[in-house]
Amino acid sequence: LIHLEKITKTYVMGSDTIHALDGVDFQIQKNEYISIMGPSGSGKSTLMNIIGCLDTPTSGTYRFEDEIVCDVGDTGTVKMNGNDLARIRNRKIGFVFQTFNLLPRVTAFKNVGLPLVYANIPRAQQVQMTQLALEKVGLADRAHHKPSELSGGQRQRVAIARALVNNPSIILADEPTGNLDSETSNEIMALFDDLHRQDNTIILVTHEPDIALHAHRSVHILDGRIESDEINPNV
Amino acid sequence: LIHLEKITKTYVMGSDTIHALDGVDFQIQKNEYISIMGPSGSGKSTLMNIIGCLDTPTSGTYRFEDEIVCDVGDTGTVKMNGNDLARIRNRKIGFVFQTFNLLPRVTAFKNVGLPLVYANIPRAQQVQMTQLALEKVGLADRAHHKPSELSGGQRQRVAIARALVNNPSIILADEPTGNLDSETSNEIMALFDDLHRQDNTIILVTHEPDIALHAHRSVHILDGRIESDEINPNV
Ligand SMILES: Nc1ncnc2c1ncn2[C@@H]1O[C@H](COP(=O)(O)OP(=O)(O)OP(=O)(O)O)[C@@H](O)[C@H]1O
Ligand SMILES: Nc1ncnc2c1ncn2[C@@H]1O[C@H](COP(=O)(O)OP(=O)(O)OP(=O)(O)O)[C@@H](O)[C@H]1O
Ligand SMILES: [Mg+2]
Ligand SMILES: [Mg+2]
């Protein structure tokens, strides 16, 4: 489904060079359930942004369903055209950002419904799908609050609802339970487990070992490289 | 040191009334180490903002070192004058926000040094104190990155460094390890434990039971009320 080959991501700041990703080879099959763990600053969000087609690598190849999304090398750069890329991002992938990235001046309801606007879903269906997504994360009674009128964990759940509203087949969740108490975390993980059973693909960055145990495959990142990649024996 | 009496915080939204805090009585002595836990949306951040003099209650009294900071009742509102309030906020209290609240267009170094500017600390000393705070959270090599050039856990640590830079005697930390892996969390908790041993007062909102175990007193909040308030038997 997704194939990363020799992926690097480098930032040059003055005389410093930061190797956020330092040569990553990584394959994801359909319907996998993968957790990604690693120290703060090790490259997890950078990797997720590349998988989610939100960022391009400094070098390396990224294939999605066997099509080249981008290929950056010494001979030049090949990129998928803008429309095909937008379709992958808007219809196939749901992304929960580590820092939520909600529109501050718009209600929870409008924030959650935004992917449906981009996907040209008919208006009446938009309202229905948005309502359902909010109910799934327990926020039906907070639909008309703006982000500044929500608690931290409520904003996180709005970000989760927005990622799921368009029924994407690939869910990329970057620390989705970081601001949630254990009961609410369990409700969110039950959602993800359910989506996985419905044949979707789940990739979840977390720093909590209990959350990582839900996944079938466990990847550890250190200093921009994959340190280990193992099947979870307990699942 | 801090005395909250009959504190309420109410938001009216159209026909809905939200009781974010619904009658809170709470006392904090000097050099206490208190954890606050509770479900998402239960009122923890609202309580912290009132303790930190960043928000005023809808009704009730807040005393700081026996002086009235604000007293809101049917007979009217009494508030401490602006200068005294600013001095408490800038010199006595260090606040780690749940959503970091960093200035986006300014480096980690300048973000961390901001409280020192407000406290009129001499320039050379500002640089020294800022450098030390960044080293304590392991971010000396990220000083000149802006928040968008930092990982989620690095931004959280910049927020922590900023809260500690002016050596406040009261530290209010709202979910300070939510974005940190366990090793980095332990380093941050070691910092807080140290500060407590140096006679400071620590109040820490967390949803992780392991983190709460560092505190000597454990408060649970539910639906805007204090549900339990107990000494931690293990410490
Ligand atoms: N400006 C506002 N207008 C309306 N409701 C608000 C506003 N700010 C907060 N609330 C509501 O007040 C309640 C308490 O919010 P608070 O941020 O204190 O919760 P919390 O315990 O910190 O939650 P979390 O663990 O998710 O961070 C929430 O239900 C929230 O929706
Ligand atoms: N725009 C940028 N410019 C320079 N350095 C950057 C930039 N963005 C990220 N970095 C650096 O790249 C490294 C990897 O960042 P990334 O966000 O992927 O880490 P992470 O594993 O998600 O960390 P965390 O667990 O703290 O969220 C970090 O050390 C960070 O400082
Ligand atoms: Mg990250
Ligand atoms: Mg909160």
What's the arrangement of secondary structure elements?
Two copies of one chain form a homodimer.
Chain A: E1 2-13, E2 16-28, E3 33-37, H1 44-51, E4 59-64, E5 67-73, E6 76-79, H2 82-92, E7 93-96, H3 108-118, H4 123-136, H5 152-164, E8 170-174, H6 182-197, E9 201-205, H7 209-212, E10 217-222, E11 225-231
Parallel strand pairs in A: 3-9, 3-10, 7-8, 8-9
Antiparallel strand pairs in A: 1-2, 1-4, 4-5, 5-6, 10-11
Helix pairs in contact in A: 3-4, 3-5, 4-5
The complex binds adenosine-5'-triphosphate (2 copies) and magnesium ion (2 copies).
Oligomeric state of the chains in view: homodimer
Task: Output the strand order for the largest sheet of chain A.
Answer: 7-8-9-3-10-11
| Ligands, ions, cofactors | adenosine-5'-triphosphate, magnesium ion
Count of helices of chain A?
7
Could you tell me which chain pair has the largest interface and how many residues each side has? A-B, 36 and 36 residues
Structural class of chain A: alpha/beta
Largest sheet of chain A: 6 strands, mixed
Mean pLDDT of chain A: 96
% residues in beta strands of chain A: 25-35%
Shape annotation of chain A: globular
Secondary-structure element string of chain A: EEEHEEEHEHHHEHEHEE
